[in-house]
Design a protein that fits this description.
The chain has 383 residues and is an alpha/beta fold. Helices cover 40% and strands 15% of the residues. It has twelve helices and 15 strands. The chain is globular and about 60 Å long.
Length: 383
């Protein structure tokens, strides 16, 4: 039929096989097995009981916008005004709205790869030509961004989509790199759309990863996307937000009105309770750090595997020597060894030969699943 086509998700392909296979440990999705915070659940129930189910302000509840502005101003080097906050129905909705605001058919959009596939697909749905700049893989299993190549690629580009800390790699831009990226985009007159959903999940002692909110001025061509899904363990709630340039809030609200017409008020009350609860993020970061340690213990030193513990996010992204079809390997790990991981090719051609594990899981699940993964890699590729 005459419908728009975008590439399907290879992660979903693996997950569907895993759902149909008995006794499989799921490490393929970007979510934890931990519950959402009690304060958020209680706030949602209370809001429902109080009848807070009518159409909301399309910009977001004033109390939530104000709380997010205060939260971000306290976290980053520059203050964020409430007038710049737009609440959205998920982080993905935030990215979609940002794309709708700045990207049009025929525009060229640069994406740093390997990358979560929805980001590039959102640009393709706008009719953009997507060009991927591959991170350089280092010998020790890490990743590096070539700023000179980025500068060259940005000539004539409409926008750069940045994801730091990154899914799937965990690559996290330093403040110096962010300043260089910001300067490059500004020099080329391009928009910067920054996906910062993993900003609080860093493992070097900081409260947050370096952010464009530390660097960019309120009038810069910078849009920051964020979500409650990751740091607050609220993946199914579908609640996110944008930080938009000063003076553009009405334009963004009009786009939200056309895209999803606001966010359920009871969900926003859950978000308000969550953002006021500092303990949840700290506890979940510690939970992820424990999972990261278990993943590293299982992977480091495994023959044929190149892996470096990530600075940020909650994924172990490992290169498997000799693997040319990561989707086939991921399916074999499900059907023969009872563990579901994401194939690297799901994140673009630069991810081929890799597997991604989400380590934001309980210790018991991680220990069992990583043993299954080790056994599976030894059996399938001789690791």
């Amino acid at each position: 039929m005459d419908l728009t086509f975008i590439p399907g998700s290879r992660i979903v392909e693996v997950a569907r096989l895993a759902f149909a296979t008995p006794d499989v440990d799921f490490l393929c999705f970007g979510e934890s097995d931990q519950p959402s915070p009690a304060v958020a659940r209680d706030a949602a129930i209370r809001a429902l009981t109080e009848g807070k189910t009518r159409y909301p302000d399309v910009r977001g509840l004033p109390a939530l916008r104000d709380a997010l502005a205060g939260y971000l101003s306290g976290l980053h080097a520059r203050p964020v005004a409430e007038s710049r906050i737009q609440v959205t129905a998920s982080g993905m909705a935030a990215i979609t709205v940002a794309m709708a605001a700045v990207v049009r058919a025929g525009h060229r959009v640069v994406v740093i790869s390997p990358v979560w596939p929805n980001i590039a697909n959102a640009a393709r749905l706008r009719g953009a030509a997507v060009e991927q700049l591959d991170l350089d893989a280092t010998e020790d299993g890490g990743f590096r961004l070539d700023l000179d190549r980025l500068d060259t690629m940005m000539d004539g580009a409409r926008a750069l989509i940045l994801n730091s800390p990154g899914n799937p790699t965990g690559w996290t831009a330093t403040e110096a790199e962010l300043r260089a990226i910001h300067d490059i985009a500004r020099r080329h007159g391009a928009w910067l759309i920054s996906d910062e959903v993993y900003s609080r999940l860093v493992y070097d002692g900081r409260e947050a990863a370096p952010s464009l909110l530390d660097i960019a001025g309120p009038d810069d061509r910078v849009i920051v996307c964020n979500s409650f899904s990751k740091a607050w363990v609220m993946t199914g709630w579908r609640l996110g937000w944008l930080v938009v340039p000063e003076g553009t809030s009405e334009q963004f609200a009009d786009i939200v009105e056309a895209v999803h017409s606001g966010v359920a008020p009871f969900t926003q009350h859950a978000g308000l309770a969550a953002v006021r609860d500092n303990a949840t993020v700290a506890a979940f970061r510690a939970h992820c750090a424990a999972g990261r340690a278990l993943a590293s213990e299982a992977l480091i030193g495994l023959n044929g595997v190149r892996y470096q513990p990530p600075v940020g996010a909650f994924y172990a992204f490992m290169a498997i020597d000799g693997v040319r079809d990561s989707l086939d390997l991921a399916k074999k790990l499900v059907s023969r060894h009872g563990v579901a991981v994401a194939p690297g090719v799901a994140f673009g051609a630069a991810g081929e030969g890799y597997l991604r594990v989400c380590f934001a899981q309980s210790a018991g699940l991680m220990e069992r699943a990583m043993q299954r993964l080790r056994d599976g890699l030894r059996a399938e590729v001789g690791s």
